[in-house]
Write a structure and sequence with these properties.
Number of helices: 10
GO cellular component, one term: outer dynein arm
Radius of gyration: 51 Å
Strand order of the largest sheet: 3-32-31-30
Keywords: Cell projection, Cytoplasm, Cytoskeleton, Dynein, Microtubule, Motor protein, Repeat, WD repeat
Shape: extended
Structural class: alpha+beta
Number of strands: 32
Largest sheet: 4 strands, antiparallel
Low-confidence stretches: 95-117, 209-213, 425-430
Oligomer: single chain
Subunit structure: Consists of at least two heavy chains and a number of intermediate and light chains. Interacts with BICD2. Interacts with CFAP45 and CFAP52. Interacts with CFAP53.
Organism: Eudyptes sclateri (Erect-crested penguin)
Family: Belongs to the dynein intermediate chain family.
Strand content: 25-35%
Length: about 650
């Protein structure tokens, strides 16, 4: 793109012509700039000596030449007549001396003279045409110049009013007294109408308008143009970051062998979320620059309101959409087929569906105590395929040990308990022979990419359960995974058997779901907050730890340690909570406990593709990625499991 050629159009304008000529306008009695400038540039001029026939000078010359031509024949005729007279006299003298014998001859001579004398005068010379000596014709033509016009317009001046007033101490005192009296009256009214006010407040809560609705109609008309202008201004402001995002490739990677780096790009922050932690991040499946961020708090002693913001990389200074909630947002997920729908889970156990198309801050659908909400915080939500009746449905997991399927039926959320997590060996004998069982606390789950009914559940006890939608009473398998809570569990996007888990016990583990023991274990020396597979390679994943570092691994290059371990958050009190790969661009976004979201670009070593061999095409696609990870797993698998 940097080598792209741009065509330039040549115009007939003279580049040396002055553009700022000013002339005095006698009409307006002021100096005015001349809009029209003569663009003609004369490259060659020659003064000739040719004269037009029709001009005055041409006529004078033609008359002069004609008169000169007339005078010349008259003079010659006069000369010839004089010569003839002299000859006649001489001839008469000769005849007289000759005698009488020659009388007859002389008679004939006289007759001849008389005949000569009677002859008419010779005709005039014809008028000569002016010959063109050089055989050259001079022609010229000129187009008419358009007449200059002056046009001006003037807007009507806005109406203005002059207001002036003087205030003395008595007037100020009276104003204060009136204000105090009004306040007393309002307090009396409030006492009498407490119940009515409460009802009105409840109604108002349901009708909370967003900033967009509360704005006047004039602003909404230009909101789209203003949004485009804001993006343009931001692109100019952060031009160096945009250039880095698009073109910069770290050249020093060639000399680092296998190590890579993360280049910080934009930082997304919002004034109202400064005291809230980033609790969830999700990229939009349709618009690859748009992502949603959920804000809440992981500290149960500091619970308050939550926020849900949608940012775009085109405008890092301000969010595209802002939603507020009474309880902290704990998790969110975009619908794959309807990218404007978001499922959200809250700290108070409720779930909700937000519609970005609707300009309201309230969710379109929300659970309640009547509709079977969770009794503990909802840690994860995931959209599923529509059910048999084409109703939208999603799953949620909570600390209360329930995994619930929510279906949208006739604009209401209907719940169905899929599984209740129970802790083995905790069954107690209750009164009257009742058996009481301690429920497990679910913290995360993930559904298989191909096998629709299969999903994994991570718990606070450190176990991972392999479950099926169709078996609610028992688990398909149990993995003794970690010693502390499982913070995240995720299937590999390419390989159908592999999944990854991370925990607060400082470890990240990679599993084959057919084998009870982990394939790879990585100790990151700090509690691991989140882990994510990359969308472009089956062997690349990234994890974030509470000490403010991001770790990027590529198993195909180095099976033992991270290719990149970089400090992203500098403050000691701050902790990183979540990380997500962009589905298209080589970018990750990282959220922290201060409410900031940082975007970072992966250097070439962190997204290295197989090298091209001479005469062979590089194979790409899911099959190649599966084979790449299988090759690594075969090195690790025990001989018994291979057999």
């Amino acid at each position: 793109e940097l080598k792209e050629e741009f065509t330039r159009i040549l115009t007939a304008n003279n580049p040396h012509a002055p553009q700022n000529i000013v002339r005095y306008s006698f009409k307006e009695r002021a100096y005015k700039p001349i809009s029209y400038v003569d663009q003609m540039a004369i490259h060659f001029s020659l003064n000739g000596n040719m004269i037009l026939k029709d001009s005055d000078e041409g006529r004078r010359q033609s008359i002069r030449l004609s008169t000169a031509a007339e005078k010349a024949p008259v003079e010659t005729s006069a000369v010839t007549s004089e010569e003839t007279e002299i000859k006649d006299e001489e001839s008469t003298g000769d005849t007289q001396a000759a005698g009488d014998e020659e009388a007859e001859g002389s008679g004939t001579a006289e007759v001849a003279e008389a005949a000569e004398a009677e002859e008419p005068p010779c005709p005039r010379m014809k008028e000569q045409k002016l010959a063109n000596q050089f055989n050259f014709i001079e022609r010229a033509s000129r187009t008419l110049n358009n007449p200059m016009r002056e046009r001006a317009c003037q807007s009507e001046p806005t109406p203005c009013k002059n207001f002036s007033a003087t205030a003395n101490q008595w007037e100020i005192y009276d104003a204060y007294v009136e204000e105090l009296q009004k306040m007393e009256r309002s307090k009396e009214k409030e006492k009498t109408k407490v119940q009515i006010a409460k009802r009105e407040e409840e109604k108002k809560k349901g009708r909370n308008l967003t900033s967009l609705e509360s704005q006047s109609d004039d602003i909404t008309k230009i909101s789209k143009a203003a949004k485009i202008m804001e993006r343009m201004v931001n692109q100019n402001t952060f031009d160096d970051i945009a250039q880095d995002f698009k073109y910069f490739e770290d050249a020093s990677d060639e000399y680092r062998d296998q190590q890579g780096t993360l280049l910080p790009l934009w930082k997304f922050q919002y004034d109202k979320t400064k005291r809230l932690a980033v609790t969830a991040i999700s990229w939009n499946p349709k618009y690859k620059d748009l992502f949603a961020v959920g804000y809440g708090s992981y500290d149960f002693m500091k619970q308050g309101q939550g926020m849900l913001l949608l940012y775009t990389m085109k405008n890092p200074s301000f969010p595209e959409y802002v939603f507020s909630s009474e309880s902290g947002v704990m998790c969110l997920d975009f619908h794959n087929d309807h990218p404007y729908l978001m499922a959200v889970g809250f700290y108070d156990g409720n779930v909700a569906i937000y519609n970005v198309k609707k300009a309201t801050s309230q969710p379109s659908y929300r659970s309640s105590a009547k509709s079977g909400k969770h009794t503990e915080p909802v840690w994860q939500v995931k959209w599923q395929k529509d059910d048999m009746d084409n109703n939208l449905n999603f799953f949620s997991i909570s600390s209360d040990g329930r995994i619930v399927s929510w279906t949208l039926v006739k604009n209401e959320l209907v719940h169905t308990d899929v599984i209740k997590l129970s802790v083995e060996g905790t069954t107690m004998q209750g009164p009257e022979g009742l058996q009481l069982q301690t429920l497990g606390c679910g913290t995360s789950f993930d559904f298989h990419k191909k096998i629709d009914y299969l999903f994994l559940v991570g718990t606070e006890e450190g176990k991972i359960y392999k479950c099926s939608k169709y078996y609610s009473s028992q688990f398909l398998d149990v993995f003794e995974a970690h010693h502390m809570a499982v913070d995240s569990v995720s299937w590999n996007p390419y390989h159908l058997k592999v999944f990854i888990s991370c925990s607060s016990d400082w470890t990240v583990k990679i599993w084959d779901h057919t084998i009870k023991t982990p394939m790879f274990i990585y100790d990151l020396n700090s509690a691991v907050g989140d882990v994510a597979w990359s969308p472009y390679s089956s062997t690349v994943f990234a994890a974030v730890t509470t000490d403010g570092k991001a770790h990027v691994f590529d198993l195909s290059i180095n099976k033992y340690e991270a290719l990149c371990t970089q400090l992203v958050v500098a403050k000691k009190k701050n902790k990183i909570t979540h990380i997500q790969f962009n589905p298209v661009y080589p970018v990750v976004i990282i959220g922290d406990e201060q409410g900031h979201v940082t975007s970072l670009k992966l250097s070439p070593n962190l997204r290295r593709m197989p090298k091209e061999k001479k005469g062979q095409e590089v194979k790409k696609g899911p099959e190649v990625e599966i084979a790449k990870l299988d090759k690594l797993l075969n090195l690790v698998r025990e001989p018994e499991s291979k057999a």
